[in-house]
Structures are given as structure tokens and as C-alpha cells.
Amino acid sequence: MKTMTVRRLVAAIASTGLLIAAAPAIAPAANAADACALGATCEGSLTGKLGATTFKIQMPTKFNGTVLVYSHGYRVGTPVPAALAVPLGLNDPTGYVATKVPAFAAAFGTDVAYIGAPFADIAPSTTVRDNLLAQGYALSGVGYAKQGWATAEGVEANELLMGYIRNGGISGVKKTMTWGTSLGGLIAATVAERNPKTVAGVLADCAPLMGPEQAFSSAMTVLYTWKSTIAPTLRVANYESYTQALTDLGTVFTVLGGYPAKTGVNSALGFPIAQANMLGALMAGLPTKSTVYDGQTVNPAYATLGTLAAVSAGYSPASAGANTAAGMLQNVGAAAALGILGRYELEQRVRAISGMAATDSANFNDNVNVQYSDLLSQEQRGEFGDTLNAGAVNINGMLAAMDASKGSTTLRFPANPVAVKVVQALPSAKGMYTSPTVLLTTSYDPIVNPANSFDYYAKLMASAKKAGSMAKVAQYYTMPPEDGYTKFADGGKSPDAAASAAADISGVGHCAFSLDNWGAVTKSVSTLNALTNATTPKAIKAAKAIGFGGPAVNGDGFYVPEPLKVPGVTTS
């Protein structure tokens, strides 16, 4: 089969009218009867009702009979200015391509932008790819006809590829398993539920398994806190144009980028920026650790110089609480990207699917009656009270400012029932047990709360019990070092970001499995394969033990993440 390279871009952005040049689409796939040979890499395109999807197959030199169908994570489907894209990692050439948008030059200093591309992935890294090929797995993956919250396109692409494989794309197949990272994990689980006779097992890594409403509810909590206490100009929801979304993201990044030089200052609304940000992040369920700040390490200068001298000299952080507050500033940048760019894309989908007028609200989260003071638990008040009360306005003052607008449909964000219906109708995993399942997540993830996996696991177990099935389900969480990882250069006034990141071996960040050499991921694949072959409780237990042996995985099996906080989610 002929190998082809993908170079197709999204053609236009309707809301801004900015035209982006697109290269020719991929030619139709070769005859499916021509199986991909051992040791070969085969690429092509398959077409469904939602459009053309790229696919890729890479064969091992010796095939064990198992095909892994991989779904990649979320890619922003609109051009993101380089000034915003680069710090967010949206210039990664494995999933994004550079383009030029002349209208960005004036506002962002350059017309360079990056946009999610329909490249097919077969694994989350070359390390995982090579490891699995060496074990004899055939690796395959899809690129989706459209980027963004592409569960519909992803599910269709998976089903097209599995059909292609069954029709001769790979010979000697004994079983097919789906897997994916982040949004791809949700897609993989959804495909497994929809195709119980085809999918032998599913692995979902750090996936938003509780769906888009929960994911964007968390982001709305952060952004509404910001609107109430830090940046009143934020739109938060119902973006009618891409310009509005980019303006919101630019506002957040401007505040975050300027904050380190203004430590301790208040916002224009009179609220302490660090404490208000920390409050919103805690209420949204964001992690208390970031890739640089471990939430526990205090600058050594406080021990050597003394607190007063270190404070006056500008050393930070002074306490574990201040360490966490600094980490929250870092994490909010990642959460805001999803909460703004992702919401804009999903609201545009709502408009296109429903046919609503451009002036109609496309908001699908409702926070009108949310009591924000109820979202901060007593445990959080106790652990972080000193830090939250250290600013110009204390916890109660910040919460009162947010709760004062409760019930207002003009100051809050009511959901449009039409938008809710559209979002709830998008393909999503329901928690029906249909095949062996492995769930792997990072315990401190600013994008996908690990309780997504915990709650989905509970649904699978309940479903299997109701059906009288022997549940073959395993869940794993990677953890950061117990003794912390925030590093300081000798005499450094603030943490050494590069050294801290290098020391962070696992468990912090979205799908942060790379620094343990991806061992937790490959162990999870081995666990899933063993579960598909298990026929007794003893064999299931032995299969689960494989995953617990992964690097940085919490081996006691009793870890329970903080419960999901889901204000603004409308029940069907």
C-alpha cells in the first residue's frame, strides 16, 4: 500500500472571515485487500458521513494478532496566535501546523498562528510506539475529519478504520483493542461501548470520561471567579465571535504574565490576585501542585535568613500555602485555554448543529443558581485558610462577591436548553461495561480531573454487576514524588522552573506520563491484554498487578481523588 503524507488544513474560520490556504486532500485509500505488510507503515484516507479521516498503520516485524486502534487528544481547530500557542504547547508539530493570519499581526506582533491538523497518531510517544511494536502489536490510529471536541468525528473515524482492518487492511487479526489519550480516551471508550462485538478491550488515559458539560463547568468556575474578582471584562461563555474568545484568553495571559513582577497586588476590583485565583481553582477542582510548584517546598532562604528578612528581600514562596497559590497561577493558564478556546469551538458546533441564529445563546452550562461558597470544602478552608485570608480581602469577602449575583440571569450565565440538548446528544461514554477496561490518569491534572476516571470506573462496575458479568476493570493513578520536587538555585529568590520540571518524574500535568519513560502506559497496555485473556478472578487479580508495577503508579490500589465539582451541569 502506498504511503502518503497528510497536509490538509481547516479551510476557513466563519466567525472571522479569515481564509486559510488548504493543500489538496489525501487521495482515496488503496484496495483494502492489500494488507499492510509486516514491518511496514501504511497511510491513507477513509471517508464517512462527517468527512474524510486520515489513518495510519504500523506493523511489527512479528505480529502477535492484536491490533491497537489509537485516538489522539484534543487539538484546537481554530488558528491560535503564536503568542498564545507557544506557551500552551500548541505549536507541537505532531498535532499542529503553522499558518498565517494577517489580522493577528497588529494585536499579537506577528501573523504566525498554529492550528490543529488531521494527522493520524498511533501512540502517545515514540517510546511507547517502539515498545509496543517490539511486543508484536500492530499499531493503528486516525486523524479525525475535524478538530476540536471531535467525539463524533473520532468515533466515526475509529469505526471506519476498524472496518477497513476487518476487510483486509491487516491480515491475521485475532482481536482489536481501542485506546486513546485525553479526548482520545473518551473516544476510545465510546467506540468500545458502541461496538461490543468488535472491541475486545479499551484503555483510556487521562480522559474526560464524564463528558463536555463537566469539563467546561470546571473551567467556567475558574473564569467566573476571575470575572467577579480579577478581570470584569471576561465574557466567560456564549462567544459570538473568535475575536471575543481570543480577547478573553489574552486577558488571562496578560494578568498571569505580569503577576510575578507584582506579587501581592490587588486586582482593579480590589481583590488579591493570587488568593482570588487560588479560590477559583480550588472550587473548580484544579490540582494543588503544578509542574514547578509541589505545594510543599518552602524557599530555603526563609530558614537561613529568617522570615522577615527573606520577605523584605523578595524571596518566595514563604509557605506551603504560598507554594500552592503559585502553582494555581500556573495551572489556571492551562485550564483557561480549554475553558475559552474549547468552549468557543463547542459553542460553534452547537450553532451549526442546531441552526440557531448567531445572536442566540450557545451556552450549555448554567451557573445562575450556583452557590459558590458551597464549592469550597471545609477541608480546603482548613488547609488553605491562612493563605486565602492573607490578602486584602479574606475568603468570605471573595465568596460574598461571587454569591451576590446568585439568581441573576444577567450577571450570571443561563444555559440555552437547545444548546444543552445538542451537547448532551454528542457521542460520549455512558459507563456501560462491554469489554475489559483499563483507566490510567495523572493524579494532579489541570485539564482533566482524575475523578473522571474514578466516577467512570464506578459506573462500569455497577453496570457489570447489574448484567451479572465478571468485571475486568482496572484503574491506576500516577503520583508525584512524596518528598517534593520544587528546586531552587543557590540563593534563588524563586523556584528554578527548569530544574523543577526535570525533577518531576510523574503525576503532575495533563497526561504527564513522559518523564517516567512512559512505563505506566506500556504496563497498562499489558494489563489490558492480560485482562482480555483472564477467565477467573485469580487471573484478573494477576492482570491488575501488572499495572500496579508501572513507574510512579500508586501501588496500594486505595487512592481516591477529590470528588468532581460539577456546578453548571444541567441534568437531562
Automatic annotation (TrEMBL):
Name of this chain's protein: Unannotated protein
Family matches, as Gene3D superfamilies: alpha/beta hydrolase (3.40.50.1820)
Domain Serine aminopeptidase S33 positions: 175-240
Q: Which InterPro entries match?
A: AB_hydrolase_fold (IPR029058), Hydrolase_4 (IPR022742), TAT_signal (IPR006311)
What PROSITE patterns does this protein's entry cite? TAT
Membrane-crossing ranges are none
